[in-house]
């Protein structure tokens, strides 16, 4: 388990997982780039989600909708008018905070509460002398005010003409595109209710405070699934999806005691039920939201139907009933999952060869599955054989060829990026140890560090059996 967020951020940068964006210009707040191993890990997490949410199901279809949508869609959804957070500033040092987070620190649940409630609670703390700036300790803090999270842009109009009337928005959540493509999906693919539409894509939010590495960023990726159903089916399907999502975490190695459900007491006015999956982040010292599973009623389709004038109701042939489908959603941030898997995998341990840092990822998520080494880089016969083994495997998996430093150093490097297996071609492989070990390689297991001799002819099948997700 990592001792601190700084330790994890350090490893993520040093080993090419995550970089702060625009670093040569001094950085760009709450925006991050994913390096080579980062993008491999992120893609594997995305694929693991897609596999369970779409590939292995008969009732979920895929979508990749655009980031830009008709601005009216965000009016209809309520985002333009009320997708905001309560902001509070320190007049002394100019630091900015979320007022609901400050109240949370005093045990007051201010989630989705009106400004009046938040300011009344802040006043009580102020009067008691308890309200202080977390940055400078000063007591001169502003009232809370609403801060819109919507990120504006312009399309087809010069920037200087950017005004409320012609502003367009970078989507704050990916599900908006799903609602707008509900009708086309129905018309093209004719699914019967209940069914879902899933998509993975970028979302943008002008977060007031975003100081938690990739946990909360202004540009991030969401993986969302909207499940359309008859309201009578909501209760059963909701429980089914909660169980499905819970199992997904366990399937990818998360220990059950590291996750829990958080039930929302204060719901959005259209929601009937809302639970979050929370993960116990060692780097934050506690549980934090990773994913939401929400029953949203018929709010979304009703609103889009009202604002667009297009009928989005569904006719059930069997019951001869016409109704607006209700929606159950699962919504998870890819960056938050990335941080969760990194936090969970990070291990420091003492070994006979000294201390090591190892990322014990589930094999399906590991960025690189196998590393192949020649025992020595200056022996052409070893190099030739090792390259042969490497080339035979790389068509199937992400495989690395590494001949830098000695084998011990290569193991440490691969441990730090979480490679499940390291394969070494040595003199025995070349037949120098006798017929028994000729054409065999040493395979070292990342977690147990045990080594096994495997025939090259059987290597791919041997690895496949152990890497299978
Ligand atoms: N469509 C519902 C929706 O967007 P949300 O609770 O606002 O609900 C869903 O977001 C998930 O998206 C969160 O549980 C989190 O994993 C991720 N997420 C939201 N805001 C984020 C941010 N600023 N940075 C990273 N991930 C974020």
Characterize the structure shown.
The protein is of the alpha+beta class and 469 residues long. Helix content is 32%, strand content 27%. The strands form seven sheets. A seven-stranded mixed sheet has the order 3-9-10-16-13-12-11. Strands 20-19-21-22-23 form a five-stranded mixed sheet, with helices on both faces. Strands 5-4-6 form a three-stranded antiparallel sheet. The model has no long low-confidence stretch (mean pLDDT 94). Bound molecules: glycyl-adenosine-5'-phosphate. Glycyl-adenosine-5'-phosphate binds next to β10, β13, β16 and α11.
Brief account:
This protein is α+β, with helices and mostly antiparallel strands.
User: How far is the first residue's CA from the last residue's CA?
Assistant: 24 Å
Let me know the number of strands.
23
Order of strands, main sheet, comes to: 3-9-10-16-13-12-11
Contiguous runs where pLDDT drops below 50 for at least 5 residues: none
Shape: globular
- Output the radius of gyration: 26 Å
Structural class: alpha+beta
Tell me roughly what share of residues is in helical segments: 25-40%
